[in-house]
């Protein structure tokens, strides 16, 4: 699930129908220091834990947990691998039936929903949450209370062909949005280049590409009073995004699954994606072109900014949460704390390539010596996520639909965000 189609699992499941009333429905929380739960014991802890994890994490976690149980022989851990496509419903059914696991990997966009169902145990004050990337920690905060910790993280950056940019006389990727667009357009004058950049033209998960451009020009989609899609800042950001399609710099109907092929061929020398795409493009070049040195011909750059704002991308990944029904609370949080120790995070990275949520883990040479990877670490310092409203997935679906009209039908940012705001207010925040 993770890698090139991570956005599907994060947004495809349907959130429970929760009511609210648009901008009068309460705040998103997290502005002040989050409320924490009762402390946990750390000595002489015992218990039996049922742990759920999805995808590759569910398959590989048992290997890592062997080290934990060796150090904590009185804690027994059973890991259940859960398919991503059935995970959301499995969680909801278990919450309803009172049969939740003790500990689980929880998608960041599910936190508001599950906390709203009163299923999650607040993060104990004995867990040091300051060690995490701020954006990652904020995904655990619901209505002012933290319910878990970020386990691993990822963010989006601009991938670009250094050789193609050099042929176009471009020495570096502009950090200003207007200059960035001009540069993307200029690449189309270079041999073999068809489109200056590949951008997702709406459809499921497109918000993960659009919002970084919006955040990077100071826009916001929510405040203490609810949704704010129709602000001038958001309208301007959506118009900017749509201009790439209107000006024929980006393809409004890109062939599915063609990103790596077009990038390697040089047909499309730029796109926006996460760290997993490094392996995908390099493997494609090696397997289809016999090119073992493709890594030398591309690099990554931060999302360009505008209007005095700093670059800010989307922070994704998954959290670790403890469910309230656990009969082994101390043991559960002991495991969670162990999984988020810097050395454990580095070991997990080696097993899975999941990027550490703990900032100090990035000082390890296994990460810091990789120049491209280190750039993702820098971008994570300012990355953010949508508000933890329990209805976010429903609102995201509405937003994605309007962005598709912007990209494919030329809908204005004002009309698109007015429609999104109307739908968002109808859905509410669930607070």
UniProtKB/TrEMBL annotation:
InterPro entries assigned to the protein according to its UniProt record, in alphabetical order: SBP
Signal sequence residues: 1-17
A GO biological process held by the record: maltodextrin transmembrane transport
GO terms for cellular component: ATP-binding cassette (ABC) transporter complex, substrate-binding subunit-containing
Spans traversing the lipid bilayer: none
Cross-referenced Gene3D superfamilies: Periplasmic binding protein-like II
Entry keywords, A to Z: Signal, Transport
Superkingdom per UniProt: Bacteria
Ranges of compositional bias, category Polar residues: 419-431
Lineage, uppermost ranks: Bacteria, Bacillati, Actinomycetota, Actinomycetes, Micrococcales
Stated name of the protein: Extracellular solute-binding protein
GO terms for MF: maltose binding
Region (Disordered) residue spans: 410-431
Pfam families attached to this UniProt entry: SBP_bac_1
Family: Belongs to the bacterial solute-binding protein 1 family.
Annotated source species: Ornithinimicrobium avium
